[in-house]
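Most newcomers find our protein records easier to grasp once they have seen one. There is nothing in a record beyond a sequence line and a structure line. Getting from the letters to the tokens is the skill we practise here. An example says more than a description, so a record of this kind follows:
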Amino acid sequence: MRKPFSAMLAVVLLGAAAAIPARADSAGGQKPLVVVAFAGYDALVANAKTLGAMAGREQLAAMLEGMVAMATQGKGLAGLDKARPWGAVVYANEEQFPVLGFVPVSDLKQLVALIPTPEGGKPLAPDADGVYKIEPPTGKTSYVSQKGAWAIVAQNADDLKNAPADPAALLGDLNKKYLVAVKASVKNVPTAWRDKFFAQIKTIYELSAQQASQSGELPAILANLNKQNLDKAVALSKELDEVLVGLSLDAAAGASLDFEITALPGTKAAQQMAQAKEAKSDLTGFLIPGAALTALSAGTMSDADVEQVKELVAKIRVAAAKDLDGNDDLSAEQKKIAKQLLSDGLDVLEKTVDARKSQSGMALLLEKGAPTVVCGMALAEGEKLDTVLKTLFEAAQKEQPQLAEKVKWDAGSLGDVKFHTATVDIPDEEAAAVLGKTVDIVVGIGPNTAYLGAGKNPLATLKQVIENSKKEPGKSVPPFQLSLTVTPIAQFIAQVAPADAVKMVAGSIAQMLATAAGKDHITLTCTIIPNGIGMRLNVETGVLKAILSAIPLGPPGPGKGPAKGKSPGGGDPF
């Protein structure tokens, strides 16, 4: 006979808490390692209402509660306190990771009654200590007992004795800030487990280095660089404090996924993260309104990073020169030119690193037959880089005279930036339908900047970027920011996609986003927090609406969304 769906629901309610990690004070002498917080059933329903309003599916929350009622045969979540949060704590010791989960209850007996028993059997009953033993058909056995207003869940009955008196206090403010959040205490990872993990990684790196050393000096140098980075990772792991991941929803801002990492106060890692707060950029012109994609980064290199790069450059100088000397395919003149170009190029890199400031930006503009991408970065000794490029071009032109027809050196300038252009034919018809029959390429070099563009109007776009950047020189910016504007992406796909079905879906999304009042972005932004760095991925409300409207959630509410029968998500989930 088919078991009621309420069985699965009860296992989720009680078993999920034991499978989810959370933060707490030490219990039984063990250190807390991970904490997971779930804001609770009422918060889940509230978020469902928000999502339903965004998608024009106001019945979404009612559907959720209807599914619960159906699953429990009309009993509802009897015994569960819907208003309070859930959580669990994972403790760390040198041998294992005990888990304690907690679910808010008003009556554990009622909640356990939802769990099915063998055919014709009696409901589960507690032992003399009030502990229920739950043995699912698959998975591990769990033990549950009520302590105050909480159901405490563990994988070992003895672990129930270590349950904290007030589990809600263990969550801090996580359940208030996020629907679901996970916080890990890196500092509490047992030393033995940490050492074992990095020892295994080190073995892999050493094998890779041995193989690389047989392939030449340059591969060996890169393998050694990887080993140095591993050593840095080991050192960093000893200075980290906590890592947080949290999901939240806001009716105005949309859905956000936060990632935060913090270091122990006073450590080198904390100091290096704090340096990113001083990020400034001279390239903010890349933040072009309406572009399909924009990205900007800025920061300051640490002394250790500068030293590592300069050491790497010195090794590459020697190894690359040696490889050139041993290349019998090059004439003496060609070797001389190659060595000079190598030396000049590495000089530019070394001087750029000496400045310790990193700045870069990019933008993508989409239009049928005329997509354009541009990017740029700050550097030192741009004039020397310009000379390197010109020497390369002249050498290539000797072997391919036809390049003179395609490439224009010193094709234009803007201020102290010189532009060089080239035109490339696109012979493939399908590619030409997307990119156009020809693609223009432009390189711009200034004393302290380098630019690259490709597409239909890269030169005009780069000039616009440079002019707009001059309006806000040295502007304080986040260490990193990226933004996708979904409307032009959907419009572009609707124009150029080879499949009609894809065109139709993209066109529908673009049409829907046209009414999103500019809330059509997916952004990734880095911020500086005390002793650490945070990243937020945000999906704005217009994009959420487009996504949810394509999911089968039942027919839209009255007067909202596409007409019934025409919605791709118009099926009845029941």
Observations:
- Residues 487 and 511 are 8 Å apart (CA to CA).
- Residues 1-26, 555-574 have pLDDT under 50 and may be disordered.
- The radius of gyration is 30 Å.
- The longest strand covers residues 240-250.
